[in-house]
Specification:
Blueprint lengths: L3 E3 L4 H6 L1 H5 L22 E2 L13 E7 L4 H16 L5 E7 L9 H11 L5 E3 L4 H5 L7 E5 L5 E6 L9 H14 L2
Parallel strand pairs: 3-4, 4-5
Antiparallel strand pairs: 1-7, 2-5, 3-6, 6-7
Amino acid sequence: MTRKNVLLSGIGTLLFGAARAQEKTPPEKPVFEQVPELIGAPKDWINGKPVKLADLKGKVIVACYWTFGCINCKRTLPFWNNWAKKYAGKEVVFVTIHTPELESERVVDDVKKFIEKEKLLFPVLIDNDKANWKKWRNQWWPATYLIDKKGQVRGRWDGELDYKGSGEFKRVEQGIELLRSEK
């Protein structure tokens, strides 16, 4: 999969189009008026407690779609994990949605083993029926969504965060910082 940059609104414009942001052009209309709530029973959450996005108003949310068999995801997980550690207790919440691409990635025990092996620090919602994938209209593995304190998706990066040494993880981290600084 090749990386794909997607512009959304506000910080997404700053994050993925600095020149446009400097011109102070109006933000693009967000894909969602409010971020869609995640679908899943408590049993569908592993590596942490269930997360309800509506309860996280006032915090920056980084929501990520991935699957353990995807090489691009494997190369991106360390960035998410490092940010989860760096921003712990700093009003930034990380949540990931494991949506399998292949039938073999649907085995929850294998997902648990992968999480343990990789020492992942964030809660994971198992999305084997792709309910969240469809609701969010996601298309790529991995996908990183930045959600502001009001619950609006403000930026998204589809694909590896350092594809061929691109350093795109720096832009996404800049977006996290910008969202943290907003009142």
